[in-house]
């Protein structure tokens, strides 16, 4: 495919073939347009996400961009982080628009909704107008952004996290706008978006980075900057222009990649979501340079976060910060909990690393996060995302309002419903992988193959695939074998198949496939426990891929669960009101009693209270819940 390479002499576009990554990926994701979700909670969430995208007014999101370009706004700005002072750092002006571009681009691919494409093109055209009016390539909603970056370029750099010279995360906003413009081009083919992207990247590169020493760049990177290294590598990949890769190489935070490339867990006390996106950038930089140090850093970081810093729902940290394993029991009692942003960005990192080294461990982590943290983070009425998911027993969640929050978790929360289909399938050089068990249809156009998946993991004990091929052909079908799936058997076209598992933890079927094939996966599941890290007192319950939680009533809850500026649920219960279990941890799962099969619900006898209804955590909203249970030692 021909891609825009950059500006030639006199501002004329030059075109060239994009440079392939020197490091080949082992498995590749299908375009979102090739995957359609079928009836399930994931399809419901996708629909809610699309409704919110269509509810938003693009002109309100463009408000500050037009002001900074010297143009009159066409609509008022939204409230919350978009326009109101937060923590004394001012608003994150215009911060939502980059995420809007990314989400609308992916949602158009995932659903084919033409109105989304129309709005996307409108926003890109308006951004191009703003950029033309500004005449220099700058395009942000930051108040007096040119003046701010002129100070930075002169060497006057005062940083902390989250500010640069008093402004809230300005490089982060550049990163998110660049990612959004890149998505508008790669997902929707908007050449105008690529033009705006290149001008913005050149402005930051020539007008800021080239004027700074490496030490000054590192000082700038003290402030949260997302995956700005990824964005510049993306522009290099889209254009083949080496200056963008050179700039990307200067945008690596040495405080992270150097110790993590050596396998050191130095994360204690660091702001979690500031760090996670950097490693997606390290991985992308490795793809186009082959520098193993950056892949090693990204792999080590993933392993350390997953194994040392993760709660049962797949989220990590408390109050936005990493902490030592020994503190899980203490941190569990706090009112915040894992931040939704962190999980969204850990999924992005998992996608990147899985494409290089696909295995069942990464898929299992992805499944845990998606089925339990992401799916549970959205309220079922308005589809708005929560900021924190408290782990404190007997606590609850609050969610963003549609027009008055615009928290960072609302930013990333806008994208998640659009890409729910991404990780379900991928393809290798010799076949296709089934990574997740989610009802869906895959159209593998290059092979003339359609793969349909029907399942309901909570109420049935089988997954059915229908594989239809335009012609008989040989390829490999790999289906992940999860640890929670007991005694799996495969019946293909009426015949039970011998189970062969490859080194990546996938069941492998290498055969000539007929025009129409029926593949039935039968299995059994039972409840099991997972202990709270470094605790001999608390356990969580799971059934298959789902974390179970207890409904604990509505005592002392707020009148509304949708908040504006306040992102933390404050009304705690005294822990003396939370029941404990009258048996040791290893006996907890055996004491669950099934009280309903469809929908699946359990009951669990407690000390000094009536039995509590237990069900998948993602189903419990507007009510208190218990995820971690206190047991007899």
Automatic annotation (TrEMBL):
Pfam families: Beta-AFase-like_GH127_cat, DUF4986, Glyco_hydro127M
Entry-linked InterPro entries: 6-hairpin_glycosidase_sf, Beta-AFase-like_GH127_cat, Beta-AFase-like_GH127_middle, DUF4986
Transmembrane segments: none
GO BP terms: carbohydrate metabolic process
Domain spans labelled DUF4986: 568-629
Non-reducing end beta-L-arabinofuranosidase-like GH127 middle domain boundaries: 432-525
Domain Non-reducing end beta-L-arabinofuranosidase-like GH127 catalytic: 34-421
Source species, domain of life: Bacteria
Record-given protein name: Uncharacterized protein
Species assigned in the record: Bacteroides stercorirosoris
């Amino acid at each position: 495919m021909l891609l825009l390479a950059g500006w030639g002499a006199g501002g004329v576009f030059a075109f060239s073939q994009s440079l392939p990554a020197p490091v080949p990926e082992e498995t590749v994701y299908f375009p979102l347009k090739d995957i359609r979700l079928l009836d399930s909670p994931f399809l419901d969430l996708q629909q809610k996400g699309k409704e919110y995208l269509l509810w938003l007014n693009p002109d309100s999101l463009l408000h500050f961009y037009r002001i900074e370009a010297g143009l009159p706004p066409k609509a008022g700005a939204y409230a919350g982080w978009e326009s109101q002072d937060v923590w004394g750092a001012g608003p994150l002006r215009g911060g939502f628009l980059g995420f809007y571009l990314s989400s609308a681009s992916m949602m158009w691919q995932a659903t084919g909704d033409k109105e989304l494409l129309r709005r996307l093109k409108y926003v890109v055209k308006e951004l191009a107008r703003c950029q033309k009016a500004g005449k220099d390539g700058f395009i942000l909603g930051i108040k007096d952004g040119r003046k701010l970056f002129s100070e930075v370029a002169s060497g006057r750099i005062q940083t902390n996290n989250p500010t640069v010279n008093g402004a809230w995360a300005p490089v982060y906003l550049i990163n998110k706008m660049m990612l959004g413009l890149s998505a508008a081009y790669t997902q929707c083919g908007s050449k105008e978006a690529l033009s705006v992207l290149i001008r913005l990247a050149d402005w930051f590169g020539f007008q800021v980075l080239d004027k700074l020493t490496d030490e000054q760049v590192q000082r700038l990177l003290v402030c949260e900057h997302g995956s700005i290294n990824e964005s510049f590598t993306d522009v290099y990949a889209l254009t083949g222009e080496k200056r963008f890769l050179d700039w990307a190489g200067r945008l690596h935070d040495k405080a992270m990649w150097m110790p993590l490339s050596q396998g050191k867990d130095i994360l204690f006390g660091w702001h979690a979501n500031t760090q996670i996106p950097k490693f997606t950038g390290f991985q992308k930089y490795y793809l186009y340079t082959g520098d193993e140090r950056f892949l090693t850093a990204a792999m080590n970081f993933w392993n350390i976060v997953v194994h040392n810093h993760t709660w049962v729902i797949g989220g990590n940290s408390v109050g936005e910060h990493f902490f030592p394993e020994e503190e899980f029991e203490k941190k569990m009692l706090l009112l915040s909990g894992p931040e939704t942003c962190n999980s969204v960005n850990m999924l992005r990192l998992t996608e990147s690393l899985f494409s290089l080294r696909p295995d069942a461990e990464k898929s299992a982590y992805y499944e845990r996060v998606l089925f339990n943290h992401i799916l549970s983070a959205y309220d079922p009425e308005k589809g708005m995302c929560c900021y924190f998911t408290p782990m404190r027993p007997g606590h609850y969640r609050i969610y963003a309002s549609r027009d008055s929050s615009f928290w960072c978790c609302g930013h990333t929360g806008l994208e998640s419903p659009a890409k729910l289909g991404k990780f379900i399938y991928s393809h290798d050089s010799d076949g296709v992988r089934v990574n997740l068990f989610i009802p869906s249809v895959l159209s593998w156009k290059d092979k003339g193959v359609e793969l349909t998946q029907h399942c309901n993991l909570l109420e049935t004990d089988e997954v059915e695939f229908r594989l239809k091929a335009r012609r008989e052909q040989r390829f490999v079908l790999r289906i992940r074998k999860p640890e929670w799936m007991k005694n799996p058997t495969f019946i293909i076209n009426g015949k039970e198949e011998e189970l062969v598992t490859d080194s990546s933890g996938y069941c492998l079927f290498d055969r000539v496939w007929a025009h129409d094939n029926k593949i039935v996966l039968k299995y059994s599941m039972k409840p099991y426990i997972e202990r709270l890290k470094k605790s001999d007192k608390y356990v969580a319950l799971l059934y298959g891929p789902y974390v179970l939680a207890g409904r604990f009533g509505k005592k002392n809850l707020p009148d509304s669960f949708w908040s504006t500026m306040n992102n933390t649920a404050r009304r705690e219960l005294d822990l003396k009101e939370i029941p404990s279990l009258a048996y040791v941890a290893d006996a907890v799962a055996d004491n669950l009693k099934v009280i309903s099969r469809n929908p699946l619900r359990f009951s669990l006898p407690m000390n000094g209270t009536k039995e509590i209804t237990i069900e998948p955590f993602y189903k419990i909203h507007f009510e208190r819940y218990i995820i971690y249970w206190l047991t007899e030692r």
